[in-house]
Specification:
This protein is of the alpha/beta class. The protein has a single domain, classed as Vaccinia Virus protein VP39 (Rossmann fold). 31% of the residues lie in helices and 18% in strands. The chain is built from 9 helices and 11 strands. Helix 6 links the parallel strand 8 and strand 9. The longest helix is centred in the last third of the chain and has 19 residues. The radius of gyration is 19 Å and the shape is globular.
């Protein structure tokens, strides 16, 4: 395993130091055991309710003896990983539907943060690693977690292909982070927490606070209940209770109150209008109709900095939360 993981990886159940047994297993002093698959730790808790079906699928694949399908056939220069080709719309949003199996390059966004200088960056729900790659390009040392073993191995393949070999990826659950306290300089998550219940989201946020260094901050994207496009989506499903896989829509005030409580003082800023994931960096690969959406969104985002109330009509919001000073963490490790 990567030397940073050897130092900072902990049991997600009780946060105790882990010992490696051979090449295939990690064990904590209390006897909790976690498999290692091709140097990738699988840190899921089997007895905890899943937030999506992929948790169960990952554990099934590991039990059957999962292997990286490209283990002996590394990605070639210019090749696009098959997982990214297939799941690009799932990770990047509806505007990317026409690009499924048609990508000519990886849609790696620009990180909306100041450039880093070797700071440790946690990417929760990393999928195939696009934001971890963005962080590495911007000077951070990225650690990406995702509950899907297919996503994590795709992220590792792509990072190696693009030359970001210091990026770290592992299979883990944001609600029960397998890291020691205060080991990250920043935490990031995009299009992830909205798929969880409020109780599960709180668990993730408490874990972010536990693993953030004091006086450091997180940046998390959440859809806005009052966004114009989001209102249309909610109306189509009759404003009913979402199923496990559906997006949950929260008001900005509610999200800010939760983030204030779980992490620390939080600020709201607009990310996108009329869509989630409006990336200027992808204008060259998007169809014309979506280029116009991105450009309009970008104009409104800039306007929201001058007209603060405008951000409350954005469909996608960023919440910046600061862990200002140490305080007792109310989240208790699962028994």
């Amino acid at each position: 395993m990567h030397s940073w993981l050897q130092e900072h990886l902990r049991c997600p159940r009780d946060h105790l130091t882990l010992m490696q047994e051979g090449a295939s297993r990690l064990v904590c002093p209390n006897g909790h055991s976690f498999p290692i698959v091709e140097d990738v730790p699988i840190m899921l808790l089997q007895d905890k309710p899943d937030t999506e079906a992929v948790f169960h699928h990952t554990l099934e694949h590991v039990a059957r003896g999962f292997e990286d399908p490209r283990k002996h056939n590394p990605l070639l220069p210019g090749e696009i990983d098959h997982i990214v080709q297939r799941l690009v719309a799932g990770s990047c949003g509806r505007m990317y539907l026409p690009l499924i199996n048609k990508l000519t390059r990886y849609p790696v966004p620009r990180l909306p943060m100041e450039a880093g200088n070797g700071e440790r960056f946690l990417d929760i729900g990393c999928a195939w690693g696009r934001w971890s790659l963005a962080a590495a390009k911007s000077g951070y040392c990225a650690v990406g977690i995702d509950p899907s073993i297919y996503n994590v191995f795709a992220a590792r393949r792509v990072a190696v292909q693009l030359g970001y070999t210091d990026n770290i990826y592992l299979v883990a659950d944001g609600r029960f982070l397998p890291f020691g306290e205060a080991c990250f300089d920043t935490a990031f998550s995009y299009s992830c927490l909205q798929h969880m219940s409020e109780d599960d989201m709180r668990l993730v946020l408490y874990e972010i606070r536990r693993t953030l260094k004091p006086n450091r901050s997180s940046l998390i994207e959440i859809p806005n209940k009052w966004g114009l496009w989001n209102l249309y989506v909610q109306a189509k499903r009759g404003f009913g209770t979402p199923s496990q896989q559906d997006v949950r829509y929260y008001s900005p005030q509610r999200v800010k109150a939760i983030f204030d409580e779980c992490i620390g003082p939080s600020k709201i800023s607009a990310d996108g209008f009329f869509t989630i994931n409006p990336q200027l960096s992808d204008l060259d690969i998007l169809p014309m109709r979506y280029k116009l959406v991105v450009l309009l969104s970008e104009g409104l985002r800039h306007a929201s900095a001058l007209i603060p109330g405008l951000k409350y009509l954005a469909d996608s919001l960023y919440f910046t939360s600061s862990r200002e000073t140490p305080r007792p963490v109310t989240n208790q490790a699962p028994n």
